[in-house]
Design a protein that fits this description.
By secondary structure, the chain is an alpha+beta fold. The chain has helices at residues 2-11, 63-72, 74-81, 84-89, 122-141, 154-173; strands spanning 14-17, 21-23, 29-31, 35-38, 41-45. It has six helices and five strands. The longest helix is centred in the C-terminal third of the chain and has 20 residues, at 122-141. The two termini are 37 Å apart.
Length: 184
């Protein structure tokens, strides 16, 4: 996330980062944290470790702000000034359409305000990751449930606590489940 924001801040532009959600059938779980960054500012962020199959994230951006930001950067301004030879070789096609609002518009298009980045702590990831992986594996396999053998030792007790607590809390908060399919 920091690399995407740094690139958007350094060069300007709109960056869309999309990530899969769910397990791949093996040991890998994708957390699904999609991002929308404009000129180095985070405009939208999807939730991580969710039980939802799909989550759509949207943001309104003004392309005039992106263009203005890019032309204000010294390195891009120098490149544009030195590109007369390249520009002469390009064929320019005039178009009577515009992506920006006309200058006579009463007010500019509204853009989404920047938001703070939310990152889970390592402890939260350890609690939510296994529960989401198990739920997704169970859903994809079509099984009615899974068996968690317990020996009574510290390892199995901590595993049962993490999986039980995290999966129960997440499932009860999930809007994608109908009341009849909830575990309680």
């Amino acid at each position: 996330m920091a690399d995407d924001a740094a690139m958007a801040c350094r060069c300007g532009g709109v960056y869309l980062y999309s990530n899969s959600r769910g397990c791949d059938g093996g040991r890998l779980y994708f957390d699904g944290c999609a991002l929308i960054i404009c000129n180095g500012k985070l405009l939208a962020q999807a939730s991580q470790f969710s039980m939802r199959d799909v989550e759509v994230v949207t943001a309104s951006v003004n392309l005039e702000e992106v263009r203005s930001y890019r032309t204000s950067l010294p390195c891009i301004s120098r490149q544009a000034a030195n590109s007369d030879k390249q520009r002469a070789a390009l064929r320019i096609i005039e178009c009577d359409r515009t992506l920006a609002p006309p200058s006579s518009a009463p007010e500019p298009l509204a853009t989404d305000p920047p938001i703070e980045v939310y990152m889970h702590s390592p402890e939260e990831e350890c609690a939510m990751g296994p529960a989401c992986w198990l739920w997704d594996y169970l859903r994809r396999s079509g099984a009615a449930g899974y068996f968690l053998p317990l020996s009574g030792g510290a390892d199995s007790a901590s595993t049962a606590t993490i999986v039980g607590k995290a999966s129960a809390e997440e499932l009860l908060q999930c809007e994608c489940l109908t009341p009849s399919s909830r575990p309680c």
